[in-house]
Write a structure and sequence with these properties.
2 copies of one chain form a homodimer. Chain A has 350 residues and is α/β, with parallel strands linked by helices. Helices cover 41% and strands 22% of the residues of chain A. In chain A, a hairpin with a 7-residue loop joins strand 6 and strand 7. In chain A, helix 1 crosses helix 9, helix 7 runs parallel beside helix 8 and helix 9 runs antiparallel to helix 10. The longest helix of chain A is centred in the middle third of the chain and has 17 residues. The interface between A and B is large, with 68 and 68 residues. Strand 7 of chain A pairs antiparallel with strand 7 of chain B, so a sheet runs across the interface. The structure holds 3-isopropylmalic acid (2 copies). One 3-isopropylmalic acid sits at the interface of chains A and B.
């Protein structure tokens, strides 16, 4: 009897539907008959919000929670649309899901595949993973302002960090580092300025590291880390960092390893209490939407992370290998979004 | 009668004294007889703190305030020394000076000089300036923790942003952009997540931009900005950003334009109420200290910013030109710290 896999698919806005279609195509080909796969489409995103006035209602939220995992394309409309100002979709949908489903690990592997061109002249071997915290830090929405719109306005943002939240993330980071050949963990923070949060992070890494004698531990300030990332990225193995620093460093990591067209991510609830959510690092890119110009590779690699997360690690490895082969065979000829997906799905079927 | 110029010199720790000696040498050569230059050395830094138990006392502080400007090398000791944990020197000296002397503009020009090697394969023409806020944001030290060291610890950091502080910085940014040929200002923030601070920044830029019709205005999220910085840095002209994002993006900017050995900065009090302070972006690099290995170029270019700030713009331009010529003539042969300073000073004297 094939096992069941029930996925929620939020294709989203802009290029989201195009790249997600390819990810579903590849995922379906990868699991074949071994899995009874059902996908349920959810319409959430900027387009849905502008048409319906609702970002996501409680019933839909409850329905989402019943799936085994969520595949998300990209959400967000025209950034200049005043109805979407202040990140209303990003916060009301993406961050809401990450927080409500306790996606405390935001896992972002970075690999420079052979044959992929880096903007760096001599990148060396780039193969690391960023373990970004997903439910705390400056992302908690714990800010406010007074005297808004006056010369006396004061606007605060509060970064909230808890021992509970930091420790579980750091533990995940050490487990990850311990499972990798290089066994090296780098904490990235700004402990010399953000002393309260930084102290908690540093002390937590120090304490947990005692349980992982084989993992070498390193520390870099976020500013210095950006230098290392462009000067010598091969030094990195497992980076553990907070929500905001992780946001920044993973875009940079994507850039040096071939661009956000290739960067996958998983918003993971390791406890399995809630469905984890897999999405490319890139946004909805409204300017190129609907033209079959977007590279679906990041979405496909995110589907591979999904497969691994739900225990289908063989299928996951096959997808990654097929992507790697496809990247190696890509010439300079431009292929459409669906041509890339078709090629990878065909390789998996054969 | 030559005009007087009274400088406070804080050579600091590690490579600080070596690079500062060269900066003073070059500065002295640049002003020649036109200026009656006096320099007063102050011993502040990690070494001084470890020896004396004091970072900086109130009397010294008052003395510092009487100089026309401050030249600073680099401060900070061994990061693993527990007596220096939590950025005690960085906060107690560097940030204290920036805040007390109201250095609300942290000016960091980035230029990829011809003949300087960038880690980017095709950097293009890189010539922009970052106008980083220096007295607000997450740097205000407005955080705290409860239940420290227990599983229930909560550590918060508060980013404080005021209309007063943001507006004066943004105005400086527009003035700067307006004075440059490209006349383009890019706000870098994270308005889709940090909505209160981000809203204030965005509204301020929108409002002030109305007074600068010739300046084109752009916006990038900090994460996306790191991508643009490695993929297409020549798009930037004037970047306006907050204290933390400016810290991050200027290290990255330094990296892509030849490294922090070349990156200069000015902590500026545009009102002239307090002395402004000029320092290389790099740190004290204790590992290479005392070996004449450090490149003093960043310190020398910081001295050029100082000269410009105190109204000696001809001398400033001469230093910059001499540095540019020196960079162009540098072969692959390694020169010592003082050899670089000697060469540039000699060029100025001739
Ligand atoms: C869209 C935005 C809220 C999001 C984030 O900041 O986390 C994105 O940049 C990401 O990295 O997934
Ligand atoms: C030393 C540190 C406090 C400082 C900062 O974060 O501002 C440094 O990184 C800089 O950029 O001047």
């Amino acid at each position: 009897m094939p096992r069941n896999l029930s996925l929620a698919v939020i294709a989203g806005d802009g290029i989201g539907p195009e790249v997600t279609a390819e990810a579903v195509k590849v995922l379906t080909a990868a699991v074949g008959d071994s899995v009874s796969l059902t996908t349920t489409d959810y319409p959430f995103g900027a387009t849905h919000f502008l048409a319906s006035g609702t970002i996501i209602d409680d019933e839909d939220f409850a329905r989402l929670a019943r799936h085994d995992a969520i595949l998300l394309g990209a959400v967000g409309g025209d950034p200049r649309d005043p109805r979407l100002a202040g990140g209303i979709i990003e916060r009301g949908l993406l961050l809401r899901l990450r927080f409500a489903f306790d996606h405390y690990v935001n896992l972002r592997p970075t690999k420079l595949y052979p044959s992929v061109v880096s903007p760096l002249a001599s990148p060396g071997a780039v193969d690391f993973v960023v373990v970004r915290e997903g439910t705390e830090g400056p992302y908690v929405g714990n800010g406010g302002s007074i005297r808004r719109g006056t010369p006396h306005e004061i606007a605060n943002e509060v970064s909230v960090n808890t021992a509970f939240g930091v420790e579980r993330l750091v533990r995940f980071g050490f487990e990850k580092a311990n499972s990798r050949p290089a066994k090296k963990l780098t904490l990235v923070h700004k402990t010399n300025v953000l002393v309260h949060a930084g102290g908690l992070w540093q002390r937590t890494v120090d304490a947990v590291s005692a349980e992982y004698p084989d993992v070498a531990v390193d520390y870099q300030h976020i500013d210095a880390a950006t230098i290392h990332m462009v000067v010598n990225p091969s030094q990195f193995d497992t980076i553990v960092t907070d929500n905001l620093f992780g946001d920044i460093i993973t875009d940079l990591a994507a850039a040096i390893s071939g661009g956000i067209g290739l960067a996958a991510s998983g918003n993971i609830n390791p406890d399995g209490t809630f469905p984890s959510m897999f999405e490319p690092v890139h946004g909805s890119a409204p300017d190129i939407a609907g033209k079959q110009l977007a590279d679906p590779t990041a979405a496909i690699l995110s589907a591979a992370l999904l497969l691994d997360h739900v225990g289908l690690s063989d299928a996951s490895a096959r997808v990654t290998a097929a992507v790697e082969a496809d990247l190696a065979s890509r010439g300079s000829a431009k292929r459409s979004t669906s041509e890339v997906g078709d090629a990878i799905a065909a390789a998996l079927a054969s």
